[in-house]
C-alpha cells in the first residue's frame, strides 16, 4: 500500500507543480521520512526479538487497523489530485471539504497517529509504540503548523475550516 501511495504522491506532485503549486516544509519532510523508516525497522526488530507473537488483543487491534486503512483511502480519494506526502499548495485553490474533511481538518494525520500505535500493539512492540508515537507527535506539531500557515496564506483554508477540529470530529472548536 505504501508503494502505491508514494507513486500517487509523485504523480500528483508533478501535476501540481506543473500548474503552479508551491512546496513548503522541505526541511522537516526529510526528518519525517527518516522517522517513518526507523519506525518500521524498530517495529520489525522489536517484534521479532520478542518472537513475533500476536497480541492477545490482536482481533481488536486488527479490526481498528482495518477501519483506519479505510479512513486513509477515503482521505486520499477525497483529496484526489491534491493528496500528497509533501506540503504542496496551489495558490488561490479552494480547499477540499468533502469526505472525512467535512468532519475534521487532518484525517490522514489521524490515520498516521493511529498506525504508530496499532501496528506495534498488534505484535506487542510496546517500546516502538511509545517512542515513535512521541516522535511522531513532535514531527506532526511542526508539520501541521507549517501546512496550516501555508494553506491560510494561499487558499480559503481559514474560512472553510474554522469550525472543524484537527483530529476529533464532534468536539467543539475554540
Automatic annotation (TrEMBL):
InterPro entries: ICMT_MeTrfase, Metal_cation-efflux_comp
Keyword Membrane recorded: yes
Membrane-protein topology: Multi-pass membrane protein
Subcellular location: Membrane
Alphabetical list of Gene3D superfamilies matching this protein: 1.20.120.1630
Alphabetic keyword roster: Membrane, Transmembrane, Transmembrane helix
Residue ranges of the TM segments: 28-45, 57-77, 109-142
Domain of life: Bacteria
Pfam families named among the record's database cross-references: ICMT
Stated name of the protein: Isoprenylcysteine carboxylmethyltransferase family protein
Amino acid at each position: 500500500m505504501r508503494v502505491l501511495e508514494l507513486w500517487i504522491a509523485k504523480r500528483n506532485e508533478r501535476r501540481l507543480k506543473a500548474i503552479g503549486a508551491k512546496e513548503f516544509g522541505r526541511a522537516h519532510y526529510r526528518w519525517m521520512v527518516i522517522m517513518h523508516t526507523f519506525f518500521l525497522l524498530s517495529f520489525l526488530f522489536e517484534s521479532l526479538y520478542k518472537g513475533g507473537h500476536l497480541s492477545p488483543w490482536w482481533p481488536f487491534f486488527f479490526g481498528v487497523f482495518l477501519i483506519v486503512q479505510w479512513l486513509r483511502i477515503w482521505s486520499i480519494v477525497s483529496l484526489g489530485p491534491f493528496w500528497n506526502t509533501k506540503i504542496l499548495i496551489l495558490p488561490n485553490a479552494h480547499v477540499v471539504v468533502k469526505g472525512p474533511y467535512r468532519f475534521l481538518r487532518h484525517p490522514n494525520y489521524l490515520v498516521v497517529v493511529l498506525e504508530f500505535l496499532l501496528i506495534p500493539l498488534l505484535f506487542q512492540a510496546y517500546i516502538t509504540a511509545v517512542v515513535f508515537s512521541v516522535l511522531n507527535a513532535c514531527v506532526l506539531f511542526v508539520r501541521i503548523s507549517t501546512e496550516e500557515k501555508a494553506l491560510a496564506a494561499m487558499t480559503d483554508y481559514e474560512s472553510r475550516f474554522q469550525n472543524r477540529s484537527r483530529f476529533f470530529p464532534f468536539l467543539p472548536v475554540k
